[in-house]
């Protein structure tokens, strides 16, 4: 990959129907990314995402991948790497969950934790090993600003992202000096087609803004990227708010 421009020639997206992942892939394909793998559950949405990226002139292939099927991860991911070196892996899968429902029905809570943390740990370790073997490349992990301090309203999601965030930072340390770059991306609330109510909310970002920040982070070889950048200071302050006060905040 040409670090000067921050645009990989080849890309593997884990979570190929994610709006953030697709916005990032589109931005990179518009630059110089010519080979893209979209990994996700087979669906019309995955195929539509592939067609959108082909419009940029990229060769796009889809591969069946399920975060919860960790037993199949190694075979699936090693097969992709065997097709040729990858400059970048974007780990973008995850679920928000429904906090009230998930608190009542622990099956949903466990599924959220397994998707956001266990599945991500499995996939990231395998990709990290493959990138180390090829002696280079970037692993970009989509975390969340919620990883800094879980709120009452979404502590199941926030705790799963906190675990993922800590893991990804540790993986970055483990791979330091190998030529592999690990970057953790912490967006705030992201306005998507499914969340139009966030239009006027403060510090809300968009998939396109996250994509721009990812590209800039690649160029700088950043280890942690906040989107928007000022969120770093907001969360630093919230992290030190006394717990009794934090409980009363309308967050």
Automatic annotation (TrEMBL):
Matches recorded under InterPro entries: NAD(P)-bd_dom_sf, Sc_DH/Rdtase_CS, SDR_fam
GO molecular-function term, one example from the UniProt record: oxidoreductase activity
Uppermost EC category: oxidoreductase
Keyword Signal: no
Record's keyword terms, sorted: Oxidoreductase
Pfam families: adh_short
Keyword Cell division belongs to the record: no
Xref: PROSITE patterns: ADH_SHORT
Gene3D superfamilies cross-referenced by the UniProt entry: NAD(P)-binding Rossmann-like Domain
Domain of life: Bacteria
Known EC number: 1.1.1.333
Family: Belongs to the short-chain dehydrogenases/reductases (SDR) family.
Protein name as it appears in the record: Decaprenylphospho-beta-D-erythro-pentofuranosid-2-ulose 2-reductase
Species the sequence originates in: Streptomyces catenulae
């Amino acid at each position: 990959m040409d670090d000067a421009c921050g645009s990989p020639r080849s890309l593997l997206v884990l979570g190929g129907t994610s709006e953030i992942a697709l916005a990032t892939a589109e931005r990179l394909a518009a630059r110089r990314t010519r080979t893209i793998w979209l990994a996700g559950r087979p669906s019309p949405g995955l195929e539509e995402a592939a067609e959108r990226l082909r419009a940029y002139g990229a060769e796009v292939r889809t591969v069946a991948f399920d975060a919860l099927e960790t037993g199949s991860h190694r075979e699936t991911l090693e097969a992709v790497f065997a097709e040729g070196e990858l400059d970048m892996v974007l780990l973008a899968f995850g679920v928000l969950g429904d906090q009230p429902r998930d608190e009542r029905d622990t099956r949903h809570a466990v599924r959220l934790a397994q998707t956001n943390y266990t599945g991500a740990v499995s996939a990231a370790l395998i990709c990290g090993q493959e990138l180390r073997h090829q002696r280079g490349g970037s692993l970009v992990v989509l975390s969340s600003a919620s990883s800094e301090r879980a709120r009452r309203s979404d502590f199941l999601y926030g705790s799963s992202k906190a675990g993922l965030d800590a893991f990804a930072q540790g993986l970055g340390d483990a791979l330091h000096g190998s030529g592999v770059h690990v970057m953790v991306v912490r967006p705030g609330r992201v306005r998507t087609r499914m969340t139009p109510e966030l239009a006027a909310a403060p510090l809300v970002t968009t998939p396109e803004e996250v994509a721009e920040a990812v590209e800039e982070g690649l160029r700088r070889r950043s280890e942690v990227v906040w989107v928007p950048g000022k969120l770093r200071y907001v969360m630093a302050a919230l992290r030190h708010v006394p717990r009794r006060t934090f409980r009363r905040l309308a967050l």
